[in-house]
Amino acid sequence: MKYLLLLLFIFIVRYSSAQILEKNPISLSIEGCSDSYDTWSIIPSFMYKPFHFLSLSVGLRFSDFWNQSNNSFSGDAGEHLWRITDKSDFSYHIAFQPEIKFYTPDITIDNDGDAVLFSLGMGEIMPFPKRGKGYVDFLKKIGNTAIFDYQKFVKNTGNNKKAYTFADVTGYIKSDIWSLGLGYRVTHYDIYGCSRKLFINGQKVNFPRKANNTEVYIVINYCFTNKKS
């Protein structure tokens, strides 16, 4: 990491002799992404870009599962089978997402000033404090079948206050005030992080856990001014 930061510093120093100040410093973006947990996220954010090679942004991430028809999770509890019918009750849905990005110089592609550029970003996903909780169905085993017996309300035994780091790379095509980007992000973001201490009848619930949660995303950015950078 220290060598990466050193290279970024050298790049900034060398590039600062060219265009430094960004003429469109404030912009609004909307990002849509899909990750390894089979969830989607929509991330509106404000970005401040004081220099052509650097931006700071803060976004609000809204997430849920793609496939709501396959939204259950189950296990065995002796004489009963238990079933969580809505696993989204035990996942994060809202998070802050601050980020810093470093940009390459623009590569002009036509006479109208349209250009291609790339960025490397680093930041954190900071979920709103939440304790996973919801209802669990218990099905009584009778021979080779299981019949609904009763329902029970359960919740995580503690609050998990955690921030998850990430890194991403994005390629953009931009015009005067609009830009469209396609990117790839690697993070340790645990969508079930609010329910890692959930127990059902003394049995710990082991929701899926990804060592590396990867995301593919599309982002649209709009600058509030109409001046060319």
What are its keywords?
1 helix, single chain, about 230 residues, mainly beta, four-stranded antiparallel sheet, eight-stranded antiparallel beta barrel
Structure description:
The chain is mainly beta and 229 residues long. It has one helix at 2-15, and strands spanning 26-35, 39-51, 54-65, 73-77, 80-84, 94-103, 107-108, 115-127, 133-142, 145-155, 164-174, 178-187, 199-200, 203-204, 213-223. The model has no long low-confidence stretch (mean pLDDT 85).
What's the SSE blueprint?
Layout: H1 2-15, E1 26-35, E2 39-51, E3 54-65, E4 73-77, E5 80-84, E6 94-103, E7 107-108, E8 115-127, E9 133-142, E10 145-155, E11 164-174, E12 178-187, E13 199-200, E14 203-204, E15 213-223
Antiparallel strand pairs: 1-2, 1-15, 2-3, 3-6, 4-5, 5-9, 6-8, 7-8, 8-11, 9-10, 11-12, 12-15, 13-14
C-alpha Rg (nearest Å): 23 Å
Computed structural class: mainly beta
The main β sheet shows up as: 8 strands, antiparallel, barrel
Strand order of the largest sheet: 1-2-3-6-8-11-12-15
- The residue-averaged pLDDT reads 85
Oligomer: single chain
